[in-house]
Amino acid sequence: MKTNVLILSGVLLSIASSGFAQEQSKYPEPMPMKPQMSEYWTPQPPVITPGTTTANAVMSPPSDAIVLFDGKDLSEWQNTKGEAAGWTVHDGVVTVNKKAGDILTKQSFEDFQLHIEWQIPENIAGSNQGRGNSGIFLQDKYEIQILDCYNNETYVNGQTGSIYKQTPPTVNPMRKPGEWNVYDIIYKAPTFTKDGQFRTHPTVTVILNGVVVQNNTTIIGTTQYIGFPKIIPHGEGPLRLQSHGDPSEPISFRNIWLREL
Ligand code: MG
Q1: From the CA of 251, how far away is ligand 1's center (Å)?
Q2: Of the chain's two ends, which shows fewer C-beta atoms within 10 Å, N or C?
């Protein structure tokens, strides 16, 4: 009898302890993401020479464009707190003020054609992502990278013309520091299902200095510095220009206009 009680206790104990073990099961956590995990360096896009332009050749906006910067003031822009944009307007251009942070358009947009010109300063220093880094966030979510990629190697999905950390440009047609680069960007906004997934992805065509570097490319989510793209449902959104924290000389912009499509 005593033996039976002991066996029964043992069985009960083992059932109880196995239940306990199930409650305490530990599964592996995903490995913490580091920036380098979403950066790749090969193959590098071929370097090509774009057509030439004279230093002051500015094409005026078409008559149906929303002019976002005409060289005079930043009245169409604000900082991330909704206050006056604190970048420096001079000589018909606007130069990034790194202390003032990013700036955004006051207006929001859906599908559009954007024209924007930008200049890496002639005395630029630094390397990799720390050399003339800026960017244009479409609908405040998806960054088209700006970087001095003239004789400056970096991970290819972080080059100028890339959808940042997603799709590298097909080629590298950058002009050298001191000259003006021209982006023409055609963007189609996403639509979303009720449960917050893409019904249709955003897509973008990017022409840099007259050369197609993204051809109706699907954007797979937000452009994260660390980690994977996210799908964040949104409606119309502003353009955001990046004030990057790297120590190199700030870049300048001019002749910014947009046509709603
Ligand atoms: Mg950037």
Answers
A1: 12
A2: N
Into how many domains does the chain fold? 1
* Segments forming the whole domain that contains residue 71: 2-260
Residue pair 173/167 in contact by the 8 Å Cβ criterion: no
Ligand 1 centroid–CA 97 distance in Å is: 15
Per-position b or e across 48-85, b if 16+ CB within 10 A of its CB: eebeebeeeebeebeeebbebbbeeebebbbbeeeeeb
Question: 149 alpha carbon to ligand 1 midpoint, in Å?
Answer: 12
Q: Is the pLDDT of residue 6 over 70?
A: no
What is the whole-number distance in angstroms between the Cα of residue 27 and the centre of ligand 1? 36
pTM of the predicted model as reported, rounded to 2 decimal places: 0.86
Which range, of 12-16, 56-60, 67-71, 124-128, averages the lowest pLDDT? 12-16
34 vs 48: CA distance, rounded Å? 32
pLDDT at 143 over 90: yes
**Amino acid 12: pLDDT:** 45
Distance 130 CA to ligand 1 centre (A): 10
Distance of CA 171 from the midpoint of ligand 1 (Å): 18
What amino acid occupies position 75? S
- pLDDT digits over 71-115, tens only? 999 999 999 999 999 999 999 999 999 999 999 999 999 999 999
Q: What is the pLDDT of residue 11?
A: 45
Ion ligand 1 neighbours, Cβ < 5 Å: 133, 135, 242
Q: How many CB atoms lie within 10 A of CB 238?
A: 18
Q: Give the bridge partners for 200, in sequence order.
A: 191
Between the CA of 65 and the centroid of ligand 1 the distance, in Å, is 26
